[in-house]
Write a structure and sequence with these properties.
Blueprint: E1 26-33, E2 44-49, E3 52-58, E4 70-73, E5 78-81, E6 83-88, H1 93-102, E7 105-110, E8 130-133, H2 144-149, H3 162-171, E9 177-180, H4 189-201, E10 206-209, H5 213-222, E11 226-228, H6 238-246, E12 250-252, H7 255-262, H8 265-274, H9 281-294, H10 317-327, H11 335-341, H12 344-349, E13 366-369, E14 383-388, E15 391-392, H13 403-406, H14 410-417
Parallel strand pairs: 1-4, 1-5, 6-7, 7-8, 9-10, 10-11, 11-12
Antiparallel strand pairs: 1-2, 2-3, 5-13, 13-14, 14-15
Helix pairs in contact: 3-4, 4-5, 6-9
Bound molecules: zinc ion.
Residues 87, 89, 111-112, 303 line the site of zinc ion.
Length: 421
Amino acid sequence: MCNHEVPQPTAEKSGRPAPKPTGPHTVIKNVTVFDGTELLEETWDVELNEGKIQRVTVSKSGEHIDGAVEIVDGTGRYLIPGLIDSHIHITDIEKTLSGLGMFGVTTGLDMGCFNEATLRDARGINGRADTRSAGYSATVAQSTHHKLLRMPDASLVNNVDEDDWVAQRVQGGSDYIKLIADMPIGPSQDKLNKLVDAANRVNKLSVVHAVNAQSYHMAVASKCSVLTHAPLDTTIPQSLVTTIHAQNQVCVPTLVFMHMQAHSLLVTAVDTITRHFRRSYTPAAESVRAMFQAGVPIFVGTDCHGDLGPLAPKYGLAVHEEMKLLCDPDVGMPPTQVLQSATSLPATFFGLHDRGSIKPGFRADIVLLDANPVENIQNSRRINKIWINGVPHPLAKTGLISADQTSSNDSSWFSWVFKPN
Ligand SMILES: [Zn+2]
């Protein structure tokens, strides 16, 4: 008998002592605030102390704040919560954390790592981007992922007891469970269902990778918590969208990586030789649009994976590109909802209740922008200053990110392929 209940997110348990905050007692004065839900009226003084947001009060010009060591003038500027990337892969810890942090991405959720032993080394470092991880993701022998990415044997679920496999992940430090619905060789529908059930039994969210319509059907049928990626072959039917919504499933479409694959001459050449289906961006965008319009929560994620493959979105920067793609007319999400999808919504869903909002008591993970991101989502790139856990980030990419880094036209994407990470 299968128990297909979607588990409720659990409270955060990092297993590590909280990092000791070192950031100075800071006040950002007279700033416009997007608090994780909406752009607040009036201007605000936001006080940071001991790594937390201490106070958020309506600005009163000239008022002295006792004990503040650093005063930052926020006049004409916009404060948003640190961004959350709901789909990364941690390869090199240093590259991952610095890449995320310098672009204001203060939390990265790893969706399948290659060395479970290092999971805890990548989280809770003072002043650095924080992470959570799925640990090893589930696949079967000879699947595309197993062959191309040389996934560890611990990922193989061919002949394992599903409860034992999930228990091993939990013991290894996994915060949620990741399954890969690969085609044509991958876990069967029965195997996916049993793994999702096993995750539910230990109150872990389950995330299923699906990149075409068939694997989307399988992922939906498994009743997993999160569908990740978007179909590159066919737009999913409205009936499936209705089921996704009814089952309270959420989607992390990673459009930035879908777009990159669909526009890569390299990928097209390989697909032609291997007779893989021809990848197209249109069904991915149309499917996300349909899910969003039906009320399915869409979270910002990028599938950044360092130099693991020839196509690689850049840590941190790709979050800004993903937000732009979600706002583009073919998907049509309003900037306010995209900002929620990169802050408060994933924080709540993944049980990270200490972040994602600008409210007293929350982690002082915040980004100061020179322009209004609600007016134009591309203003998320106009970074003035970043604090992580109250600590000013020394490598923040300030100023307008140059056009060649932000453009999503074909030649730019193609040039990214050959850029060292
Ligand atoms: Zn991935």
